[in-house]
Design goal:
Layout: E1 2-5, H1 10-19, E2 24-25, H2 39-55, E3 63-74, E4 77-79, H3 85-95, E5 99-110, E6 113-125, H4 130-139, E7 159-163, H5 166-170, H6 174-183, H7 188-193
Parallel strand pairs: 1-2, 1-3
Antiparallel strand pairs: 3-4, 3-5, 5-6, 6-7
Helix pairs in contact: 3-4
Length: 194
């Protein structure tokens, strides 16, 4: 069996590598616009679209395609990747001293069958000082991340606690991945060992 990750995310790639998956990365430009405002529905829709677009380009059987999409949301507002430094600072100020939720949609495709679901993790930030926000944004770390921070990076110094899957916040919910593999009648351990 071949495994394909339909994502350019270095964090998703690293999670799969650390689990022992052997895979290739194949991406296809996909329309990520949506009228959906519910984070669970939005991430599932986008993960499904990304995976389906890649799966349709593969003309062989026994190829597992893994795709995902992650958003951060707070006060009903969905926070994607910041467009610029000013937006990154605005997002971090919104998250400062508060709880927010990270939602990832995950979609797996195998031999014509597609399963899709989502995972939520609550993240609690301590108060972020203006000085920290300025320096953090200037470092460039927040610029390609939903919500303008990386849980595994410098921002971890200000995370008081998580409720849910840590790997979901990084960008690929591992427990949900195992659940969806089983829904495709694939044994997660056997898939990893191949």
């Amino acid at each position: 069996m071949k495994i394909v990750l339909a994502s350019k995310s270095p964090r998703r790639k690293e999670i799969l590598e650390n689990l022992g998956f052997k895979f290739s990365v194949v991406t296809k430009d996909t329309d990520e616009t949506s009228t959906e405002t519910d984070p669970k529905a939005l991430t599932k829709e986008l993960a499904f679209r990304k995976g389906k677009a890649v799966a349709e380009t593969i003309n062989e059987r026994d190829v597992l395609v893994i795709s995902s999409d992650t958003v951060v949301w707070c006060d009903g507002k969905i926070l994607g990747k910041p467009k610029n430094e000013a937006e990154a600072k605005e997002m971090l100020k919104l998250l400062s001293g508060r709880r927010h939720t990270v939602t990832s949609g995950l979609s797996l495709s195998f031999n014509g069958k597609i399963v899709t679901d989502s995972e939520d993790t609550d993240v609690y930030f301590a108060d972020l000082t203006d000085d920290f926000i300025e320096k953090y944004v200037a470092s460039g770390e927040p610029m390609d991340k939903a919500g303008s921070y990386a849980v595994q990076g410098v921002a971890s110094m200000y995370i008081e606690k998580l409720h849910g899957c840590y790997f979901n916040v990084v960008g690929l919910p591992v427990r949900l991945l195992c659940k969806l593999l089983k829904e495709l009648d694939l044994d997660p351990q056997a898939v990893i060992n191949k």
